[in-house]
Structure prediction request, 167 residues.
Amino acid sequence: MSKYAFIFMGFWVAVIGFLVFVAWMRVRAAAYQREGIRHGRGVFLTFDYAPGEWEYYTRDLAFRGAVGTASFGDKNVYLKDDTEEVFIELFGPFRNSPRLREVALKDEFIVFRVRTRDLDPNEKGEIALDHPGNVEEFFVLIPEKHRADGQTLLEFYRMLILKNRKT
Prediction:
């Protein structure tokens, strides 16, 4: 092999190595963020549920514990009880990551509408960001003792939507 072939091959090995490193750093950042909210770092507000409220909230969910908590961070929501835990990602690090589109109060719930993936243009060249198949709704019960915090939480996430608005 010539000297130029080794240089060319070395260049591509360096480029691929760099791309793998960047991908690893992004995955590591997401894992660090999840670990942080699990241990209380970056938590804006936490709801502690009474046993009756938790049973009412989780009647259709996979939770089996008697009491639970909901922690709200700037990029995700963390629900946990004695046996299970669930992360709801609101803002992901990649272009096709989940993206919080809308937040609202509905009865005693705060509702998160999260776009779960980017869309390719349809045959007309239009992109329908909030197509029903690409948007998921997550309902989080606001406990009775935290009803006053619901509006604060709503304003916090509306500010984050404006700050992170990417289409």
Q: What stands out?
A: The chain has two domains: 1-41, 42-163.
